[in-house]
Design a protein that fits this description.
The complex is a heterodimer of chains A (about 160) and B (about 90).
Chain A lengths: L3 H34 L5 E3 L4 E2 L3 E2 L4 E10 L3 E12 L5 E13 L2 E11 L7 E13 L2 E8 L3 E3 L5
Parallel strand pairs in A: 3-10
Antiparallel strand pairs in A: 1-4, 2-4, 4-7, 5-6, 5-8, 8-9, 8-10
Chain B lengths: L2 H30 L4 H25 L7 H15 L4
Chain lengths: ~160, ~90
């Protein structure tokens, strides 16, 4: 027959073991889920994003209207590229903007973002593509959006 | 006091509180619902496990909600306390 001390000691050991197991499983399971299973897009933009005009001059500002939805509040980084499409479908990329911004929980929020075309931009068909990086539970997520195509010509009025 | 020391002290406090809470809940069930010793222990064990499972499910479905480690510890301590059955 076990004494009270022995029973109490075994109860405490059982409590410690279960507390550790619950803590390890409880802490690890969500991390595994968000890293390997979760495919939710927490930030989306209706694509292609619209531009105000179809024809632009070099040095001109292209205003892109994006309609975004987000289910979380977070800080994000974006890298924006100007992409030239040649006749053979080959793409030439040029970085035109990068920076941090805040993602706010919203549904179909319309925002206008200006992007300045470099003065060295040659004539051709282009579109703007942005890579947005944010984190969910320390798991990095990437979202790519692009604008509709527009044409850069010299001396457009 | 640095963060690690604070965390350890918090964990110890929650562990002790978990054991005390479990003891009093067990006693309450026996007196209020006239449960047998065995039935009240099993009820608490299952009830706390279900609560923990629900908290885990919420943390998986709601990206903004995280269950604190101390809560996992205290619930585990209660389940462990009632899981042990002396011979």
């Amino acid at each position: 027959m076990q004494t009270l001390d022995q029973k109490l000691a075994k109860r405490i050991i059982s409590s410690i073991v279960f507390a550790l197991c619950f803590s390890v499983v409880g802490n690890t399971l969500p991390d595994i889920y968000y890293e390997h299973i979760d495919q939710t897009e927490y930030y989306t933009i209706k694509q292609p994003a619209m531009t105000q005009k179809q024809y632009y001059n070099p040095c001109e500002v292209v205003v892109v209207e994006i309609i975004r939805s987000a289910t979380i509040n977070a800080t994000a980084e974006s890298q924006v590229e100007l992409i030239l499409l040649d006749e053979k479908g080959v793409q030439t990329k040029k970085k035109i903007s990068e920076g941090e911004f805040n993602i706010e929980r919203s549904t179909d929020q319309a925002i206008q973002i200006p992007f300045e075309l470099p003065c060295s931009t040659t004539e051709g068909k282009y579109y703007i593509q942005a890579l947005v990086k944010y984190e969910i539970r320390n798991v990095p997520k990437i979202y790519v959006w692009r604008s509709e195509e527009f044409v850069v010509k010299t001396e457009v009025n | 006091m640095d963060t690690n020391t604070q965390t350890i002290i918090t964990a110890i406090i929650f562990f002790v509180l978990g054991n005390i809470t479990g003891y009093f809940l067990h006693d309450l069930l026996k007196k209020t619902f006239n449960m047998t010793e065995e039935a009240s222990k099993n009820f608490l064990l299952v009830f706390v496990t279900v609560i923990w499972s629900i908290a885990m499910l919420v943390s998986l479905t709601n990206v903004t909600y995280e269950v604190p480690v101390a809560v996992h510890g205290i619930l585990g301590a209660i389940v462990g306390f009632f899981f042990y059955k002396p011979k």
